[in-house]
Amino acid sequence: MSKKIFLVFLLNMRYFDIMDIIKWKIINAGSNDTRIIRHRLDHSYGIKAHGHDFPEFFWVVAGTGMHLINGEHIPLKTGDLIFMRSGDWHGLSTDSKNTFELINIAFPCEVIQDLHTRYNDINDVWNDTPDMPKMYSLTELQRQWLEAAASNLLNYRNSKIELDRLLINLVCEIKQTENDIFHACPDWLAKACRSSQQQRHFTNGSRIIAKLARRTAEHTARTLMKYTGLTPSEVINRFRMDYAAAQLCTTDKNITEIAEECGFCSLSYFFQRFRERFNISPRQYRLEQLRIVPRNK
What is the DSSP letter of 8? Predict the structure, then answer.
């Protein structure tokens, strides 16, 4: 049977009211269809707690609500993304008079099992070990991308690769977000910090972050410490050292030249900061990154 993808707008969905455990072979009549469902809930109607034997993920498009998941109540807001595993039990409700809207994408277990064998990062998201499924907060740009990707999935009804692409790209987005120390910062601060990663900015020292943010140095430092646990100097030195490491790996510039490009007047101070970041000297770092290719005799 050819793969079909369904988009269902459920304004008054009662399906889950009569089922405690949802079986993939029942809802999809034994096929491998991907199910894309848009739920619209309000204070008079929610989704009864249920389990299922297939993985899925959903994100909140609008409104706020409560997620009953494996016996715990977790509040949800716009942009929250949850990766559900087969075996999880959950239900959804809202006390708000406004609509609580979310999009759910479900698929057969075989899809995740296949991706598990190839990508370890998939295991980090759909991991059977924790008691609770993974939950993330999407940025506005990530929400726009995800909704566009879901719409694109609808346009390629017979393509399994489109589902794989969505899942892989989504996990990549999540992993990049986890590595972004400024993700939780207010937008004005996150933008300033990311801009200060450029060499033309970080050579100006730690006060460049406040300048780019158009805030006072004191307010910027307090907010940065609150959300990252770092001072402006620590952030700028991190950017400088990352730039230095890249230069050591990709160019034949001498170490003094690289230190000057990073904005350091003292070579010994540069060596100190570099060792603090990588636990190794710049020279040793360069040597370890070099690949030794044997020559033909």
Answer: E
